[in-house]
Amino acid sequence: MNSESLIVELVSGLGPVRRLPSPGVQAARWLALALVCASLAAFTQSMVMSGRFNFRIGLPMNNWQAGLSLLTGVAAVVAAAFLAHPDRPRRWLALPLVPLAAWLGFLGWHWAGDVARLGSVALRPGMDWACVTTILSVGVPLAAVQYRALRHAGAVRPTPVLLLGALAAAALCSTATSLVHPVRVASTILTWHGAAALMLMLLGLVLGRLLLQPAPRLA
Amino acid sequence: MASAQAGDARAYDRLLRAALPLLRAIARRRISDFAEAEDAVQDALVTIHQLRHVYDPTRPIRPWFIAITERRAVDRLRRRGRRAGRENSLEDYRETLAAHETNTGEDRVAALQLRAAVADLPPAQRTALVLAKLDDLPLAEASRRSGMSVGALKVATHRAVKTLRRRLGAEDLD
Q1: Where do you find CATH 1.10.1740.10 in chain B?
Q2: Contact criterion met (CB < 8 Å) for A11 and B7
Q3: Which CATH code fits B2-86?
Q4: Contacts with B46 from chain A: Cβ below 8 Å
Q5: The CATH fold of domain B105-169
Q6: Residue B40 exposure: Cα atoms within 13 Å on the Cβ side
Q7: Is the complex ipTM more than 0.90?
Q8: pTM (2 decimals)?
Q9: Which residue in B67, B75, B56 sits closest to B26, CA to CA?
């Protein structure tokens, strides 16, 4: 079949389509959903752990950790929504890198401070299963919802959208869990929140493609 | 494209036909093979069709077409690269398997044909060939063993070689 015949085939039976909302609106919708889900998960985690809702914003390290992870999550979802459109420039990819670097840099700097203050104790990351469980159990469905909304990215830029979508979900869940379960040792956050985020990104990269629209292959 | 999103088939047809030269130029800049480039153009047309609901009519259409066609052309090149890495041309290699033992079939057939041709030679020619060429004896010794004169031995050997050449088709190659 030549290209002109293909055009005839594509045009025949053409119907109206519902236009997708702009990337900004898509990102805002997902953020609203993610904040509600992450808050509910944090509330549940707090109730399970202490029997009451503890909203702790007293620790400066916790506030910074929560603020920077929130910023990373927002930047990642905005970047993913824009990158899912073929004509948007690839430099959107850089948007979440700045808050991500600041987030990791802050934790690293705090970790170095812990080592100087506490010695080798600060090198041993404590267990933080509650946060890891929350990040994964809420992050996976949130990432799946985002992949479904941005499924058109499958035909153009699947990999960055999959990675950024998972990063956004993990970062927002990390924010919520930090507000109800403050951790005083940076190595614990670095290790367990980082491991959960990496696991979520890996899962997104491997399984997320199933939710995206595949690129067409004629022959 | 806004009209196409509303279901206007004519406008869509005009748009895609008008875009075709641009899509072809982009694909051929990336892919030297004409047929492969045309396949990339068709992939791009299908992608444009699949994503027509994603396009924002307030933005220019040209970068949209360019980005999609570039992507499909790169996909084609990658797929061709992967295919080329997996395939080997059969014409270049007559061996069936990599192990040496499995590729001696032709040599064995040639050896059998040669033995059969030597066995079919007249007795005098066969004796002269075996003694003078295969056993590589000096002419005097070969003459003594065969009871033929040295001259007769030379002539018989020469005729035996000529008969074998004719029988095995070697003369056709000269």
Answers
A1: 2-86
A2: no
A3: 1.10.1740.10
A4: 6, 10, 216, 218
A5: Arc Repressor Mutant, subunit A (1.10.10)
A6: 32
A7: no
A8: 0.68
A9: B67
